[in-house]
Structures are given as C-alpha cells and as structure tokens.
C-alpha cells in the first residue's frame, strides 16, 4: 500500500489535519466535518481559541466517532502565504502528530490552496514537507520507546476534480523522490564522524549507484589521486589516518554528446582546523563540514530516480582535516593537478583546497555549467544568518534562475559579490594564490574572497578566461541547532538538494 493516498475509501486516521486561511473561513468540506463534530470547530473559532493566524495551531480531542482528533493549522492571510511558510506549517503539524505517536494521518487540501498552486506542485511540496518533518536520525537510540514513531500513512482529503487527481498523484510520486534525496543528504551528514570517513562516504556513493542502474560511481584511492597530481587534496588529508578519496558519480539521462552539468561538493568529513586548530566550541558540529558533498549526492540521486533527461556529474573531493605528525602547515606551498601553486596561510581554510581539485577536474567533461556547494565560511553565516545561503556567480542568467527557483521551493539564496577587489586580495607574494585574504583587513569580506579563490580555479591558467559558467553556493543554512525547529528536527537539513533538482530539471 502506498504511504500517500488520495481520498481513500476507508480512512484510517489518528489525526485529521485541517489547514485554514485566516481570511477565508470554513468552506463546504470543513463545514461537513464540523457538522459531524456537532459544531465543535465553530465553537473553537467563536471562542477565538483559534483564529487561523499564521503558524497558529490547535489540537482538539474528540471522545468518540470516526474522527478522534483534529489539528487546526493557521495559514494566515491568503496574500501572505509563501511556499516556505506553507511547508513549515505542514511540517510542524506532521512533526507534532509524530511526536504524539500518531501513525496514520489525514491532511485536507482545500480548493483555496489549489487555486493558488496547481495540483501537482501542491502535492509535491506537501509530500516534501511531510517527509522532511518525519525524518529522524535515531540510529543510536538504544531504547525502543525513545525512537521516533514511523508514520505509516497520510491521506490527502478534499473535493478534488477529476483532472486534479492525476496531477496530485504525479506530485506525490515526484515529491517522495525529491524528499528521499533531501533525507539521504541529511542522513549522510548526521552520521558520526568516526563512522563517516572519506572511505565511508565513497561506499555510500557506490551503494547509491547499485540502487539505480542509471548511476555509475568511481572512488579514486590515494594512489590514484597521487597519480593525478592533486597535491592540494592530498595535503589536507595528510594529518588523518583515513585516506582521502575522490568520488565521481555519473548520470547520463540523455545523449552522452550533450554537455553535462557538473556538481562539486566539499567532502570534509571532519574539520578540526588542522594545525590551525579550532577552539573547542567551534569544533562541535564539524561532522557537518561534508554537507556540500551530501547535498550533491542527494541531488544526483533524486535526478536519477526522477529519470530526468539531462546529463549530470557529481564530483566529491573528500578528506578529514586533522592535526598530526604529517599534517600540512601554514606557509606550505601546494601544487594542484593543473599546476597551480597555493600558499597556505591557514590550515582551517581547507575546504577550498579540496574543492579546487574538483573544479579543475570538471574541465574533463567540457561542462555546460559547474555548480559547487560547500559549508565554506563562517563569514557567510555572519552575513546571512541560518535562513539563507550565499550565491556567488559571475553569470547573471544562472543567478536569476537559481534565485527564482529558490523562492519557488522555499530554499532562500542571496547573491553576494565577486569582483576585482576580492580576487586581488587572494594574490600571493610567493605563489599563484593564497588560501585566505580580506579586503581592507584579514577578516573583511571573507565570504567573497573565498568565492574569488574558487573562481580562480574555474579559469584558464594562461588566459584567465572562464573554462565554463560557474556558480558557488556557500551553505550558511545547512544545519539547524541542537533543538531543531517546529517543522524539522535538529541536524543536517538537506539544504540545496531541492533547489538544485528544480534548477537542473527545468
């Protein structure tokens, strides 16, 4: 039986979730439910215990009858509803039910919602909100009662017209696939760092490819990385007992002669800072420093499962950045696979040192475009907080499309600057480029100087011309803190997967 059903003949439910607009009141469907409940919903409204204001909710218990519980969810005013707000409200209602051990849910989708959004889109975003809310990383909970209750079924209820039914089902199917990619990325990020080594990350990519015959994965060993001359990636991994890996996942959904889009993800499985060691408080959550890689893998998984007719390549340079007797040092000069030389000023600016090898390797595919994702700078978090991620690109068309898609799916991006002053700040006195720098001061503009560093490796070494169109996403909003939020549990949140899926398949 499918987890999501539309108007099933027999409705098994522990709770009925009813989203309501503040300025619309009860429609016919809700009035019919209210009648079955002897006017209880009307009484709740008249008492002003629930006024359908944005993010307001009220859980009602009914002593007997076919409906035992109703969760009223406020959508606020129609004109103010956004995809992001809608998904957060649906997610918070599902998470509330799950925390109360409810296994079978029903969710009402009104005609007012269908007028604002086509049936396929509404179903897709609703399923994604539900699946993201339901996900919990409880693998290490030893007591059964402490594990999160699995939701067995979700019924979509409403007065659906016949043309809507097919689109609703399509949206359900695609939403489930996209959400699986998001939660796959979250799962990779949430695995403890002792387990999530570069080798383990490579094994997960291989396993993913075995589950979809349209994917092909190669994991390059340290010996193979050495043969390619990736001195920058090798240096970052030198302080760890775990070898670095270079992971390549290929998906050809159309003629191989068509140029692929290449995704490059930062795969630092733990970042201690190396010899430029982090203070203790800043080392917590550094298992999440591979979320760029996780999002790239989640994206290509979703695109392959959707059977998108595009060619996509995912590249993940992966290492663990640890202090050790053979660690790379400040003042070292590294040489990349393309012969670029990099002066190391700080070993805690290591993510860009592994990414650059991926950006250089990407030229082998003569790509249509290259997009890299990385938890790269604290400066981006300082600038934007934890609700948006930074977008850097010299390509206006890429920026416009990606910003638009971000708003459409509720994953907000904000374009931050590149330019001559940032590139100049990264020039080295003793090498081609240095790995940290600021504009007017070492700590100023460092999200943009980090992006300028990456941009250097997207350009031809001789002419300085761009090898391909390029964009960089600095994942400022890749995790939520120890308590999570009302609509999503703590830890990795899978940011970037859905925005890239929609960007690449459109």
UniProtKB/TrEMBL annotation:
It is an enzyme of class 3 (hydrolase). Its main location: cytoplasm. Mn(2+) 1 binds at residues 271, 348, 350. It is found in: Cytoplasm. Its EC number is 3.4.11.1, 3.4.11.10. Residues 346-353 form the Cytosol aminopeptidase domain. GO terms for cellular component: cytoplasm. Its cofactor is Mn(2+). It catalyses: Release of an N-terminal amino acid, preferentially leucine, but not glutamic or aspartic acids; Release of an N-terminal amino acid, Xaa-|-Yaa-, in which Xaa is preferably Leu, but may be other amino acids including Pro although not Arg or Lys, and Yaa may be Pro. Amino acid amides and methyl esters are also readily hydrolyzed, but rates on arylamides are exceedingly low. Keywords: Aminopeptidase, Cytoplasm, Hydrolase, Manganese, Metal-binding, Protease. Mn(2+) 2 binds at residues 266, 271, 289, 350. Presumably involved in the processing and regular turnover of intracellular proteins. Catalyzes the removal of unsubstituted N-terminal amino acids from various peptides. Belongs to the peptidase M17 family. This is Probable cytosol aminopeptidase. The lineage of its organism: Bacteria, Candidatus Magasanikiibacteriota. The gene is pepA.
């Amino acid at each position: 039986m499918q987890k999501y059903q539309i108007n099933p003949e027999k409705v098994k439910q522990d709770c009925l979730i009813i989203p309501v607009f503040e300025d619309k009141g009860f429609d016919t469907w809700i009035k019919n439910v209210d009648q079955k409940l002897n006017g209880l919903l009307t009484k709740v409204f008249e008492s002003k215990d629930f006024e359908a204001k944005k993010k307001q909710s009220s859980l009602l218990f009914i002593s007997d009858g076919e409906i035992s519980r109703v969760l009223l969810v406020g959508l606020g005013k129609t004109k103010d509803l956004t995809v992001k707000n809608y998904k957060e409200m649906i997610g918070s209602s599902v998470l509330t039910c799950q925390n109360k051990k409810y296994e079978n849910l029903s969710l009402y989708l009104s005609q007012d919602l269908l007028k604002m959004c086509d049936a396929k889109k509404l179903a897709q975003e609703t399923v994604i909100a539900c699946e993201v809310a339901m996900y919990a990383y409880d693998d290490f909970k030893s007591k059964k009662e402490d594990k999160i209750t699995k939701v067995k079924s979700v019924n979509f209820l409403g007065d659906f017209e016949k043309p809507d039914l097919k689109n609703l089902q399509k949206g359900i199917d695609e939403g489930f696939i996209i959400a699986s990619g998001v939660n796959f990325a979250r799962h990779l990020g949430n695995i403890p760092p002792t387990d999530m080594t570069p080798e383990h990350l490579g094994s997960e990519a291989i396993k993913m490819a075995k589950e979809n015959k349209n994917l092909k994965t190669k994991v390059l060993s340290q010996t193979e990385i050495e043969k390619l001359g990736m001195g920058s990636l090798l240096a970052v991994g030198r302080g760890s007992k775990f070898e670095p890996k270079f992971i390549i996942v290929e998906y050809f959904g159309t003629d191989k002669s068509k140029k692929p889009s290449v995704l490059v993800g930062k795969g630092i499985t733990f970042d201690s800072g190396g010899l430029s060691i982090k203070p203790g408080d800043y080392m917590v959550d550094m298992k999440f420093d591979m979320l760029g890689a996780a999002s790239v893998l989640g994206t290509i998984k979703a695109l392959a499962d959707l059977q998108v007719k595009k060619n996509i390549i995912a590249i993940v340079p992966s290492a663990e950045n640890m202090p050790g007797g053979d660690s790379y040092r400040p003042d070292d000069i590294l040489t990349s696979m393309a012969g670029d030389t990099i002066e190391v000023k700080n070993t805690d600016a290591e993510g860009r040192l592994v990414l650059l090898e991926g950006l250089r390797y990407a030229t082998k595919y003569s790509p249509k475009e290259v997009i890299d994702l990385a938890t790269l700078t604290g400066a981006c978090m300082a600038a934007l907080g934890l609700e948006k991620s930074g977008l850097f690109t010299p390509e206006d068309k890429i920026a416009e499309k990606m910003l638009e898609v971000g708003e459409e799916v509720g994953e907000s991006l904000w374009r931050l600057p590149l330019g001559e002053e940032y590139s100049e700040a990264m020039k080295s006195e003793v090498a081609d480029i240095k790995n940290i720098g600021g504009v007017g001061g070492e700590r100023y503009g460092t999200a943009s100087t980090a992006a300028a560093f990456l941009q250097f490796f997207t350009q031809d070494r001789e002419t300085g011309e761009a090898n391909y169109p390029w964009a960089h996403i600095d994942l400022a909003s890749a995790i939520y803190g120890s308590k999570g939020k009302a609509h999503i549990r703590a830890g990795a949140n899978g940011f970037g997967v859905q925005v890239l899926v929609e960007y690449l398949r459109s």
